[in-house]
Design goal:
With 356 residues, the chain is an alpha/beta fold. Helix content is 46%, strand content 15%. It contains 14 helices and nine strands. Strand 5 (199-204), helix 11 (211-226) and strand 6 (233-236) form a beta-alpha-beta unit. Helix 8 (132-149) packs parallel to helix 10, helix 12 packs parallel to helix 13 (284-302) and helix 13 (284-302) runs parallel beside helix 14. The longest helix is centred in the N-terminal third of the chain and has 25 residues, at 2-26. The radius of gyration is 23 Å and the shape is globular. The model is unreliable at 1-31 (pLDDT under 50). The structure holds ligand G3I. Residues 75-76, 79, 119-120, 161, 237, 267, 323 line the site of ligand G3I.
């Protein structure tokens, strides 16, 4: 009896020490605030979508961008409505040029966004009259002009954005109506011809909440590739929120990575006020969930093969920059004064777990 009690105590001690060493491995080492930037800590490019007016007018915004990020996506400046706002063949390059120039001077990668989308179309496109061949020529001409201008400067493009619905069927866009499903192939082939070195993405949202859409996106892309269409990666926008489970998010990333293609978490934000309550006030519990979820998303990205990690891009820099700001929300890594939030340290913790 005495003997077996000793054994039990010894076993308990061994268990405790094993548990303690596991904990040491799994518990993130504390990240010192303000010492290591995201771009220094991240094993892959870490970026943000940028607003041109804030870039031009707000010094703290520019400083945050150059300190923290190694990749940029123009939030709006490279959309069709911005590049060719009023007339076919009449381009407004100023904002996009400014961003490309800034990125080059600061050694930041540019991800271009986006060529074919149902949204942000100039009215001349909505009113365009022509045969299917005229529509194809118009789209081809637009993509060739933009890719050629930034050839060798823009590393990657969202060539087609949001072509599928949540139920996995094709979205009825003007491109589908006027050209047919082949618009996707045309867009990718044209972009590739204009810059064979650019990395080309199909970009969409909802992979984490619709398994049907997740499968449809991956199947569509694989099918196109099997016919020789130059698609190199899939963007998961990941506009997600506090009601979304870790399992669904991680599953979306892993299932997409199983295609073997490059993965870009391309528009990441994490809404706390998913019900869009105009009186929502932020609280510690929600911020803690946000921190843990950001950590899980980054950890999932860290766990896919390094060659497939194109990067993570947050959709904005500070909370006040977010497209979600029509209601109170706090979806990003920096607060409205560009101070790091707790979720910023969640991201850093995911990187420190990877290193340990
Ligand atoms: O720049 C004009 C400004 O001059 C004018 O005074 C103001 C009046 O409303 O509008 C400004 O443009 C707006 C622009 O955002 C900049 O704030 C556009 O109307 C508005 O449509 C545009 O919204 C953008 C939206 O895409 C549509 O292009 C959002 O900023 C942008 O965050 C959002 O981003 C999309 C991604 O491209 C694709 N995935 C979903 C994501 C969120 O919707």
């Amino acid at each position: 009896m005495q003997y077996s009690k000793k054994i039990l105590i010894a076993l308990f001690c061994i268990h405790l020490s094993v548990f303690a060493s596991c904990e040491q491995k799994n518990t993130p080492s504390p990240v010192e605030p303000d010492t290591v930037s995201l771009k220094e800590a991240s094993p892959f490019p870490f970026g943000a979508a940028l607003s041109i007016s804030k870039m031009k007018n707000l010094e703290i915004y520019r400083t945050t961008v150059t300190t923290e990020f190694s990749s940029l996506t123009p939030e709006n400046a490279m959309k069709m409505a911005n590049l060719a706002p009023s007339k076919k063949d009449q381009y407004t390059w100023d904002d996009a040029d400014y961003l490309v120039d800034f990125a080059q001077k600061n050694n930041i990668r540019i991800h271009g966004h986006c060529f074919v989308w149902h949204n942000s179309l100039p009215s001349w496109v909505n009113n365009f009259v022509g045969t299917k061949e005229d529509w194809k020529a118009m789209l081809k001409d637009y993509i060739t002009t933009v890719v050629s201008r930034y050839k060798g400067k823009v590393a990657s493009w969202d060539v087609v954005n949001e072509a599928l619905l949540d139920d996995g069927t094709p979205r009825q866009t003007i491109w589908l109506t006027k050209i047919g499903w082949e618009y996707i192939e045309l867009a990718f082939r044209t972009a590739h011809e204009a810059d064979p070195n650019a990395v080309l993405f199909y970009n969409d949202y909802g992979q984490e909440y619709s398994k049907v859409k997740l499968a449809a996106i991956n199947d569509t892309v694989k099918n196109l590739i099997s016919r020789g269409v130059p698609i190199h990666g899939i963007g998961l926008q990941m506009h997600t929120n506090i009601n979304q489970s870790v399992d669904n998010i991680v599953n979306a990333i892993n299932q997409t990575a199983a295609t073997g293609l490059k993965i870009h978490i391309s528009e990441l934000d994490f809404a706390l006020n998913s019900s869009k309550n105009p009186n929502y006030t932020v609280n510690d519990t929600d911020l803690a969930t946000q921190k843990s979820r950001y950590r899980s998303i980054v950890a999932a990205m860290c766990s896919i093969p390094a060659s497939q990690r194109w990067g993570i891009t947050t959709w904005g820099v500070g909370d006040d920059d977010s497209w979600l700001k029509t209601n109170p929300d706090f979806p990003l890594l920096f607060d409205s004064n560009y101070k790091q939030k707790s979720c910023y340290y969640g991201v850093q913790e995911a990187f420190s777990i990877l290193k340990n």
